[in-house]
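Progress narrative, work stream C.
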Amino acid sequence: MTDSVQIHLVQQSFLVGDIRANARKIISLAQAARDAGADLVVFPELALSGYPPEDLLLRRGFVALCDEAVADIQRSVTGIDLVFGAPRHDGQKLYNSALCMRDGALRSVYDKYTLPNYAVFDEKRYFSEGSKPCLLTIKGITFGITICEDIWIEAPALQAKQAGAQALLVLNASPYHGGKYAERMAALQQRCVETALPVFYLNLVGGQDELVFDGQSLVLTGQGELAGRGVDFEAADLRYRLHTDGRIEPQQPLADLSSEDASIYRALVYGVRDYVRNNGFQGVVIGLSGGVDSALTLAIAVDALGADKVMAVMMPSRYTADMSQHDAEQQARALGVEYKVIAIESVFNSFLELLAPSFAGTEPDTTEENIQARCRGILLMALSNKFQRMVLTTGNKSEMAVGYCTLYGDMAGGFAPLKDVFKMRVYSLSRYRNSLSAVIPERVLTRPPSAELRPDQTDQDSLPAYEVLDAILAMSVEQDHPQRDIVAAGFDEATVERVLHLVQINEYKRRQAPPGVRITRRAFGRDRRYPITSGYRRK
């Protein structure tokens, strides 16, 4: 019979900046793990401060409060080894650290070695790099500690191995994007090949502004075989027994892997839920048009918050088709939300009358279309103010990329669930949601998309077919391919040039758009930062 260590990996959410509440959560869950027989309890990267704390780290009071909370945890947790992530200031520099404690003593400290400074990460803005491996020995088993980005490169894990580690503990705040699970597995298996050490990879869960953390913590044997997987997008207490001979005994079954659409949908639901709740809103209000984007947004909102927290508003104009009004009402009734119809015709006419002297001698154009969108934006924001409900906008990534949206109109709101979702993905996610329960009318999924701002309008009057548009945008926006490469891939040169031109000239709109859930490797906002004013034209 070999000696062993009972390990609890606490896959939990921790709200950025809520230091005292996060400390109480760490203390409570650590004590519960101790009472359940754990030898070691582990919490995610920067669990104490939440991730990412961004410029809060530049405030001396914030770091001091973290120090006070560390001392509280140190006094309060006894009878178990505890590892958790926290900012740590040594009097000169600030580190992203893992603190290892037992019975009031700080046993060891690990300072993150690899500070990511790309995509959504800005860690070099705040933290200094660590340089030394960190070991923690419990009941004859020595653990090497690493943090998140450290596991994506060779050196930190090898250093821990060379220092005497028999297993790796990895504290993570690894944000989700589509396909991230496979990337993580490949990185972890490579570390297992290089070190022959088992890996206990614990990830944060929860939504924080644009980012969503999917949990889905992983445990691999020294041979790189999967021994444990936590559920995605849910808190979990994951329990494993590690023996001195390297055997791992999971004490819960492997969580199922979600399909890509299921995973993305869960990310959107989780992101909306945490953003609305953590910002103190009573619920949400959504402009329901009878189209697929607002239909999917409504389903996400209900799944995130509950039907009683969602108000849907149809705001027809002279151009709104009867089928749109019927389909919108059908979906609202199917989901059980509060449903209002507020026609904008009288408001629209009032604006046209007011502007008639100024518009004399001109022909109607997108100006009049945008006025309708702005009438709707005013109504939704009024309902938001009156009932303390956040407006969820319904635009998708395809529209946002090329500026097929109206400032202070359909872009007016507090959060944009579909901001990082291309149009074709909107359709596949809608079909996925209907596979759970039919809430989006089939006609919404099959009729040509239209903004319904002029007679007989369809999106393809102004844009290429979405299958083509999304493919061009994916190569340009997400993969940074130049125009010549996109044309070489088989796309019409004039179409590519027009699409890229639209992307470039609409940066000013995107800069004013609300935040939204990041589900790709390159989202507008934190990921992709381009100047509004620029003489550069991509060729």
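Work stream C, second folded protein:
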Amino acid sequence: MPEHSWVAASGRRVGGDTVSMRVLLLSGVTAALIAGPALAQTPAPKPAPPPKAPESPTVGEVVVTGTAPPVRTSIDRKSYSVANDLQATSGSIGDALRNIPSVEVDVNGNVALRGDSNVTTMIDGKPSGMFKGEGKGQALQSLSADRIERVEVITNPSAAFNPEGTAGIINLITRKGAKPGTSGSLRANIGSGGRQNGGLSASRKDGRFTTSGDLYLRHDSLKQPLRGRRDFIDPAGGGPLTEVRRSVNSGTAEVLGTRLGVDYDPDPKTRISAEVGYNSVGFIFDQRQTLDRTNAAGALRSAYDSAGGQREDRDNLEFTLGYRKKYADDHEFNVSFVRELSEEDRSRLVLRQFRLPVAPSAFEDTEYRNRFWRTQVKVDYARPLPGEAKMKVGYEFNADDNDYIVVFGRASGAAPAAIDPARSNLFRFDQQVHALFGTYERPFGKLTALAGLRVESTRIDLDQVTQALKSGNDYVRVYPSLHLGYRLDDNRQLSASYSHRVQRPQPQDYNAFRIYNDPTNLSQGNPGLKPQQTDSFELGYQYRKQGTIYLATGYYRRGQDAVNDVFRDLGGGVILQTRANVGAFQSAGLELVANGRLPGKVSYNVSGNLLWSEIDATGLGFGAGRRDAYTAFGRASLNWQATEKDLLQLQGFVNGKVLLTQGYRKPSAVLNFGYRHKFSDRLSAVMTVQDILGTTRFGSVVDTPAYRERVSGGSKNRAVHLGVSYAFGGGKVRDGFEFGGGGAPGN
């Protein structure tokens, strides 16, 4: 059988498992959630004993309590509550992250930490396939944020963490607290433009067993106009040409998520856990596009119109097993196993009609099918040592198994569509990483030190089946880390940290096959890519007193082999986008965070970053060189507790210019409003207005000696949402920071 026929057959096979997977998970979790309240009819257990009084915080961890803002800091991370973020009640994870210090999220859902987009996003300490690859921005823009309790920002992780992600780690902690008996919450929101979302969360704690689950649904409407201008030289010698492309994408997004977890405690110090989660994100949208090329005199040289549609489904199934033995405080043994399957299926139909020169219409039918398996095994042991010291050692194994399939069909005029083997391909990527790590933490008077070392062995196998190209790479790297904290007094603290991290290229970055996107845009990976290496340094100051906290952090990063997009003009206005190691880079900045209260029951949360960055791409040639830029990022939130039951919230953020290898991305800004009324501790209503001023815009500039391109557009994100939340059983509507519940990376 010809290779392209096998590709087509195997590609059709991938999507078949998804329907049964979806029905099975949805049925099981829904049944569990419905059964939970019924079990509550059994006699209620005895009341739990009153909680112990909290211990005084040490230099390793600072807990802000009472009326303090929802911020927690420790020696290696900062944690921010989103319990009072009204946008998070009706918005996506991307909406919630936009209000977190250090984090920038553009209008397409792409995340950066202090200007660096090489971020690892985790859920309860575990990486997720939903936040990898080309669709990671769509996942953040689509998945509901109402399950998120708090967000941990770890800009300089210790050696106990996976070193992947040179910018650091964003860890999303979900709501998992369970009280004796049955408790839970119901949430429903309706919005303008046909937007709706809702969810059900429930837990049942009975003796040694705790069962919990979530079910959420989301429907969004999408509309994104786009305009691009490309200037280049006519290869036929006719002088400069200008290409103007106008398009509008519009459609809908459907999101389904379920989770079911069971914890069994055979004794007070032992826990065995099992959890299964399923998420599905589906997009259906239409695209209308016109393209016109004119010469220097404004005369039309070529033009076409296209109309088409695209359907995209991303399904993610994850199963987790865990065992924890807690011997005493800071003395425990953990084992976890994760198996995850992610599938992406994109179908794109395009009809292209040529106005000049006149030619038969062209029809394209492209299928993109990606399957990703991930396996993680982690074992760690922590125990206290003499001198108030703490030690942690462990082993971690991560394996990725990826298949990328493209089946391209085309037809001209009225002819039937046929598979084009020159534009169809199969690419396989396998990666295994074995890691040993250890950390040692000890106080020396007012100084606390946390030192760590991680050793990783990585093996990568590449197989471009269509082109019969195989290659691989094996290497061993060492990743040290050091964190220092010094308590000046009860209110002030200094910190310093260093870590060495890596950014491995994404699987598709290695694919040498040239992918056809449209007649003027091609993309291609680079099997010769090396992982990006980064050394990160930070100095920090913290002040906290009576509900006020100020944080100031200076940071500096330097590295080599940065993997960036590179654009090449192939002639005739055809642009090839590929990936390359652009050489050395560095950045330095100052971050300021302030949380506190003002007169009149007003609280504030303000943060900003002033950043300088430089990219040295002189080794690439074709006009690339050393580029640097200054930029700024900021966000602010004002909360007014007008009455005991009424909260008003105004939020805004500004993302500054981002430096690229051959250009930059333009700034963007958004302003949001929210209002919540509590009818009781169990029932509340929320109204949110997103993008009040309609300023959701994006743009980029690519400037090379061969051509210049400007792209600008916007997303019609302005929307009004009305929602209600109801808590049942032993719960109540959450509106404060909760320090329990949810895992943390490295635990």
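Confidence is low (pLDDT under 50) at residues 1-69, 733-747. No further action is required on this item.
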